[in-house]
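In response to reviewer comment 3 from the previous cycle, which asked for concrete evidence that the modeling workflow produces usable outputs, we include below a single protein chain processed end to end. The sequence was submitted unchanged, and the resulting structure tokens are shown without manual editing.
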Amino acid sequence: MADRFPNELPIQFTTTSDGVRIAYAVVGQGPTCVFTQAPACAHSQLGWSLFRDNFVLLAERLRLVLFDWRNTGMSGATEEGFTIEAGVRDLDAVVDSAAPGEPISLWASAGSAFAVVPYAARHPDRVQRLALFCPGVRPASNLPRSWLAWQDLIDEEPEFATKLSLQAGAGWENEVEARKMQYLAAGAPLDYQARIENLVATKLDVTEYIPHVTCPTLVVGRRELWWPTASDCIELAAEFPDGRFVLLDGASYFPGDDEPAGPVMVEFLAGVPPAAAPVAEPRSSPCEPLSVREHEVLALIAGGKTNPEIAEALTIAPATASRHVHNILGKIGATRRSEAAAYALREGLVE
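The workflow returned the following structure tokens.
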């Protein structure tokens, strides 16, 4: 099946509203999915060559759009670097050129979520589904000592700092996986990569956009990543109005060739509900009793309130509201807020 796909992608170019040239390619047939790579090291042509099996899995079911962010791969360079607004402009240009007027789905890997989430919030009429793989949406809350030491290296030895980061981020241990390192190292100058990686982990925050993302959203996390942690990803999935969650082993920001994440995300992006998030079966009562506060939160969920609105209504912190929502979903066996609302109505907990 993979033989019908080209060995090299036919690269096209478009221009952003601020005049930056962006390289992109289209391959496959089906619903259009725009695949966004990490903003520090995107290189679509090399990525297609090195991760061909992974991309073919997508292209067999989807019309796949790959592109290089500004300052990476074959796209043009600017002095601005990566910002949330610059990323949204890049995405705007690619979507308008590759899928003018069409509905799309989006796949975001790691730091690219900082542009993808705002784009999805601003274009609810265009974005039909959103898949986030180990996504960064807010600064890391607890930077490990190794990261703090790495930050000191950025200004003094940026290339060495980035090589260390690439080795840690790739999460593979042997020479067979050198192709992943090759891709990461070729995406952009190493000093640029180091500064962008530090930026996305310590400064950028798109939390305010999450309640406005109305499409079904799948969050995939890793058990052993320090950022975002598995708990971060679980809470993030609960924050999206229509979120669901899949957890994988390991500490890599990339899906492996033999992992279930690829097929699960493809099915989801193609419009099929993921097997990891089935609709909850009706129950007469929860596995664990809900606390008084959880009953209050559940009633607000049933009323269509977002996590920030729940926090405001109950005068609690947004993070506390997110934790209550996550705990409620676990107790009643639900995977989505809509299922929690249906449970509340079915059990007579709200009128």
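The mean pLDDT is 80. We consider this sufficient to address the reviewer's concern, and the full set will be provided in the supplementary archive.
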